[in-house]
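Appendix B: complex inputs.
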Amino acid sequence: MNILVTAGPTREHLDPIRFLSNRSTGKMGFAIAQAAAGRGHRVTLIAGPVALATPKGVTRIDVTSALDMLAAVERALPGCDALVMSAAVADWRPEQCAGTKLKKRGMNPALRLVPNPDILATVAPQKGGRVFVGFAAETGDPATEARRKLTAKSLDLIVANDVTASGAGFATDTNVVTLFAPGTAPQPLPLMPKLEVAQVIVQWIEAHWVF
Amino acid sequence: MNILVTAGPTREHLDPIRFLSNRSTGKMGFAIAQAAAGRGHRVTLIAGPVALATPKGVTRIDVTSALDMLAAVERALPGCDALVMSAAVADWRPEQCAGTKLKKRGMNPALRLVPNPDILATVAPQKGGRVFVGFAAETGDPATEARRKLTAKSLDLIVANDVTASGAGFATDTNVVTLFAPGTAPQPLPLMPKLEVAQVIVQWIEAHWVF
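Resulting structure:
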C-alpha cells in the first residue's frame, strides 16, 4: 500500500520567533511510518517540527504550520491508499503573524486567534476507498471524544489515549491506547512500546483496506 | 569559577497540551556550558525544553516555564560567580492555564496574556561582584536593542545577533554575533561555530571577573 502519515506538532507563529504549539514529539507518527515501511509499504511522512531521524525507506516532508500540513496532505493524498493523521495539529493560530520580532512592550495582551481548518474534515470528500485513521489524545477518558470524532469525520479508526495515564501520551516511548472503529466494541491495548502500537495500527489498516 | 548558564526556550502553557514558545533550540547555551566546563569551571545549566544531551561535567536542571526558570536561577545564583542568560525566555504567558485539555470549540479566540518577569532585572539586586551576560536575538540590526538592554539591566556584556542573518541565530550550528560592553566599541565576531563563539564568551567572562 501507499501510506501517508502525519506526525508531530504544528507551530503557529505570531512573529518570526514566537509561536503557539503543543507537546507532541512525533514519536507515535514516526513509529507508524517505521512500522509501515518495515512491512513493505511505500510511506510518505509529513512531519511538523520534531527532533527525530527519518525512518529508513520513508519519504519525509517537513512542514511548520497547520496550513502547511493541510497543503502537503492535499498534494500527497491522491497517490495514497491510507491516511494516518497522528500529527497533533494546532486547532488555532494567531490571526496575524508579524514580519519582524515583536517587542515585549509592543505585544498585545489579548492575542487574537482564529480556528485552523480540520485536516481530516477538509480532505473527507477525497476519501473514496482510502482508509482514514485519526487520533484522540485527551486528558482523562478519551472515549467520548473518540466516538464523536469517529462519527463527525467518517473515520475508519480512531486511536485514543489519555495523555495523563501512566506510560501514555506525549514525549514517552510507550503508549496505552484504545482502538475505536464503527460498529465494533472499543479495543483496549495494554501498555506497549510505541513501535508495537504502530505495528497493530498498520496491521489493522492492511486488514481493512478494500482494493 | 562557578558559572550559571540558562539555555533553550521556555514554554508557557494554556492547558496541559498547548503552549506559547519560541524557536530557540538551546544550542548556544549548551555550547557555553560545554566550553566553560572544558575550561575547568563548575557549570550549572538551567535548560528549558530542548532535545540536546547534557555536556560532560555539567550539572543540568530542567525547567518548563519562565517562572520555573526564574525560581531555578534564584536558587542557584548565590553559589555562582557569573550568570549567562542565553535562554530565550518567553516575554508573555497566558493569564490562565487550564487543568485539562481545552476543547477546540471551548477556546477563547482572544487569548489573554500577562508579561513574565524579566529574569536578569529580577536578580539584578543580587549581582554584587558577579559577571552578568545577556543576549539580544533580534530580526534585523540588534545594536539598538543591545545597547538598551546593557544599560537598562546593568549588564557586563550583551551578545547580540540578527537571527535573520545568514548562518546566525536559531536552530543553526553557527552564529554571527557582536559583543557589546559598557564603555567600549562593539566587537563584531565573524561567522563561527557556536562552540567557538562560546569559547570567546567564556574567556571574556574569565577576563572580566574581579574576585
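The CA atoms of residues 166 and 176 of chain A lie 8 Å apart.
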